[in-house]
Amino acid sequence: MLVVLLGAAGRARAEDKPAATAGVLANPATSPLPAAEATPPAPEQTPSALPPAGGSPPTGYPPAQPFGYPPGYGYPPPAYPQGYPAYPYAYPPAQPQSPPDAGPPAPPTPEPPAPLPTGRWRLGGSLVLFPQGYLSFDHRLGGESIDNYARSTISSPGIAGFAEVDLVRYLYLGLAAQFLPWVEWTQPEGSSARGSTWGGSAREFDLLPHIGLAFATSPRLRIFGYLGAGYSLLDASAVTGPQYIELETMHGFVVQTGGGARFAVGEHGFFAVRGSYQRGYHGQEERSPTTGLSSEARLRSSFIGLHGSAGYWF
């Protein structure tokens, strides 16, 4: 019996709890209990940031911070954080310096070198002197020599003009015109010597195309050699001889070869010196007024010459 009574009492207590709870949660308008008797909510507990000594860590979050930007910094901001010395925003004062020792004077600035010639053409003139020469005359009638005369010549001066052009690096072509105002024999000693009847002087004009080679030994100096052959006229009308010979203008050709050095002055000027050897071949045909036979006069010459030139290089 006692067991039955205890079980009935437990069921009755369990049925009373839901009714009370339902009355608390019901709408106050329909609840039998007054609103003042409703159970107030439990106060909100703020957990501590640090766990209590010897206890368990807090389970809640820290309190919410108010939204917004952090307070602004002061202006101007400090150059360095606290604890660092302020940097002096300026260069340190200049230290007095002693004047430098006066060394040796600076060398003078060298003048720039004169420009070198870059053109291909040269125009120039020459003074010519043939200090040594040889001149021979031969008069032939019917193929046989009837008179001949040969002797050295006196020094024969002259002048010349020329034009040259560089074809390639070492090769050049030129054209020269040369004039010798007088060419004459040396006089024999004594009037009784053979050939003493010959005298007077001739004039010679030569037109000499030539070809040459030039090699540069320095930026301004060139060594050259040349060979030329051209047309020549020899006016022998002033040459006197036997009465039966009357010489006039003799036509022929000359061959000249030589070599020398050419030095450039500035961009356009130049000087040159050279030596030469020249041979001339001149002839004249005439008919005898008495016999009607034709005769031929031949004049052969050879000269060793010196030339000094100057001109314009462009």
Radius of gyration: 66 Å
Taken as a percent bin, the fraction of beta residues is 35-45%
Low-confidence stretches: 1-5, 17-38
The ordered string of helix (H) and strand (E) elements is HEEEEEEEEE
pLDDT averaged over residues: 79
Layout of strands and helices, then pairs:
Layout: H1 2-25, E1 121-141, E2 144-153, E3 156-166, E4 171-183, E5 202-216, E6 221-235, E7 249-265, E8 269-287, E9 294-313
Antiparallel strand pairs: 1-2, 1-3, 1-9, 3-4, 4-5, 5-6, 6-7, 7-8, 8-9
Give an overview in words.
By secondary structure, the chain is mainly beta. 8% of the residues lie in helices and 45% in strands. The protein has one helix at 2-25, and strands at 121-141, 144-153, 156-166, 171-183, 202-216, 221-235, 249-265, 269-287, 294-313. It has an eight-stranded antiparallel β-barrel. A hairpin with a 4-residue loop joins strand 3 (156-166) and strand 4. The longest helix is centred in the first third of the chain and has 24 residues, at 2-25. It is rod-shaped, with a radius of gyration of 66 Å.
Short structural description:
The protein is mostly beta strands.
